[in-house]
Amino acid sequence: MSASSGLDPLIHPVGRLQIFAVLSAVAEAEFSMVRDAVGVSDSVLSKHVKLLEDAGYLKVRKASSGGRQRTWLASTGKGKAAFAGHVAELTRLAGLAGVAP
Amino acid sequence: MTDPKTPAEALESVRKSRAAVAERLATGSLSYDLIYSALVAGMVAGWAAPRPWPIIVIGACTVGLALLARHWARRRGLWVSGVTPVRARWVAIGLGAVMVGLLMVAVALSRSGDQVPAILGLAAAAAAIAFAASRLWLKVFRRETGADL
After folding, report:
1. What tens digit of pLDDT does each residue of B81-121 get?
2. Residue A100 lies in a domain
3. What is the CA radius of gyration of chain A?
């Protein structure tokens, strides 16, 4: 499947799509929770997060808890809109594929 | 992990990730619901006591709710404000409206004389409603995040 004009190339890779699937359902999610839900390593998730943060799609908050620092992720309005549009396009394409001969 | 080859596969990966969120929320939610209900009931029951105890109890219960939410978010690695999901937010808003109504009735009863049994009955009703609404919220949330795309 290639990214067409209706799909957002920034969140098209499955890892980033899954990150937004998690973040779209909650207000904030802890880094390790997202890592486990997506099934990637810390370094891979960090790369995705940096890219999405630079694009203004998500924001990162660091907070110390019980003597250690935790990183919390949240999608921005721009990220939510991009994800909603991307999922709508995927749904449309899946529907087209369903009726294709 | 490979990129999905079809839109259906991509949507399936979204569903799986959301299901992981829903499962994590469901774990241990019964103890949360019980403590949450008790704190909400406390806010109403506080009006059975003479002044200034109602304000002190409301303050303590509010702090308790904030601490409960913070503890829960840290343990689950998730923070879900009640109004984050579109449909589940109406459960949270409805519960808030009912609780404000019950609190107003409790305040009115406390001003009308010795109404301790009535206020405590109201508090019991608040606990039952808060517990049911909390369970309903999770059910709606899970349905919303798990199946609907």
Report:
1. 766 667 778 888 898 899 999 999 999 998 887 788 999 99
2. no
3. 15
pLDDT digits (tens, 9 = 90+) for A18-37: 999 889 888 899 999 899 88
CB neighbour list of residue B112: distance below 8 Å, 6 or more residues apart? none
- Among B143, B59, B60, B139, which residue's Cα sits nearest to residue B92? B139
- A85–B contact, CB cutoff 8 A: no
Element containing residue A67 per DSSP (H, E): none
Domain residue ranges in chain B: 11-146
Question: What is the residue range of A67's domain?
Answer: 14-93
Structurally, chain A folds into a number of domains equal to 1
Q: How far is B80 from chain A (nearest CA, A)?
A: 5
Assembly ipTM:
0.78
Instruction: Report the residue of A2, A22, A26, A92 to disrupt the B interface, i.e. the one with the largest count of B CBs within 10 Å.
Output: A26
